[in-house]
Design the sequence.
């Protein structure tokens, strides 16, 4: 009988909070189980002085953790779904997606001003081309400043870099108890979230049936359905963090609606569309939505984006 589980996680404050949440749920469900956390530094954690778009090869924040899984140094990995590529190394899979937290983005501003009320040419910190494209589409006078680091680091840089505001994921801010710092929750009409934003994924070895049995209860079916649609959208567009694209799916009764967009880095052009259908067609809905956007000009935008950002540096 399985008596110990080793959870692989990044070492940031937020990643540890998320891994400890999973640990607590596992111990609550299986009181005889010993659960330990193994901190693993990923490529994304090691390189803080380069834009994500330049080092954003697939698996930027998961590669080293997946290697530990394959080598059986850990038994499961806890990831933010938005960091997980749509393709997995041989022998690994993602059988669990936890209940999704609110996936929207938030603004934390220096003077408590909303996006609409920020001064002309306000400086906004973000590491995301997705956010950059949408914010510039909303207000083309904004100055977007590349911002890397964990949540605490970004909040500190709000002052040290003399920024007018920073844009973050609501889920992370809420999980760390910093909701009082939020100036504005940004509507999805202005900033559509990243694929899977707000949910955690548990990755394990495909042949490890004991671990799968232990973690199965953490899967949230509605979140699984919605995020599966978003990840199908992402897979069809073959996108990563170096591409300004977004998708957000939600369930109402037996119906699923998914919104998706692809945009230029300067925000001048956003191609956005949505589709609705039954929940049991989630994956095909995401794929079809991507095809619609490709036919409406997204392919040309994506080609242009790759030319502007240049080749992605794959870190060994």
Sequence:
């Amino acid at each position: 009988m399985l008596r110990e589980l080793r959870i692989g996680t990044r070492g940031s404050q937020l990643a540890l909070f998320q891994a400890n949440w999973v640990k607590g749920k596992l111990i609550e469900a299986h009181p005889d189980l010993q659960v330990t956390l193994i901190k693993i530094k990923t490529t994304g954690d090691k390189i803080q002085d380069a834009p994500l778009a330049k080092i954003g090869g697939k698996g930027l924040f998961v590669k080293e953790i997946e290697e530990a899984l394959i080598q059986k140094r850990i038994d499961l990995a806890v990831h933010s779904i938005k960091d997980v590529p749509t393709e997995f190394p041989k022998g690994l899979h993602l059988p669990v997606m936890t209940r999704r937290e609110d996936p929207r983005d938030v603004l934390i501003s220096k003077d408590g001003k909303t996006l609409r009320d920020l001064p002309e040419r306000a400086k906004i910190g973000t590491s995301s081309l997705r956010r950059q494209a949408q914010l510039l589409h909303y207000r083309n006078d904004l100055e977007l400043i590349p911002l890397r680091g964990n949540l605490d680091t970004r909040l500190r840089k709000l002052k040290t870099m003399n920024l007018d505001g920073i844009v973050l994921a609501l889920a992370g801010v809420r999980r760390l108890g910093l909701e009082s710092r939020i100036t504005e929750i940004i509507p999805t009409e202005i900033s559509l979230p990243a694929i899977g934003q707000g949910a955690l994924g548990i990755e394990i070895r495909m042949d490890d049936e004991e671990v799968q049995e232990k973690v199965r209860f953490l899967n949230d079916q509605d979140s699984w359905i919605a995020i599966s649609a978003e990840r199908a959208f992402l897979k069809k567009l073959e996108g990563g963090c170096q591409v300004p694209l977004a998708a957000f799916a939600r369930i109402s009764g037996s119906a699923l609606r998914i919104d998706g967009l692809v945009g230029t880095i300067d925000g001048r052009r956003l191609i956005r569309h949505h589709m609705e259908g039954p929940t049991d067609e989630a994956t095909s809905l995401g794929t079809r939505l991507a095809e619609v956007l490709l036919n409406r000009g997204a392919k040309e935008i994506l080609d242009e984006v790759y030319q502007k950002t240049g080749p992605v540096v794959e870190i060994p």
In short: The chain has three domains: 1-98+199-219, 105-185, 220-309. The radius of gyration is 19 Å. Confidence is low (pLDDT under 50) at residues 311-316.
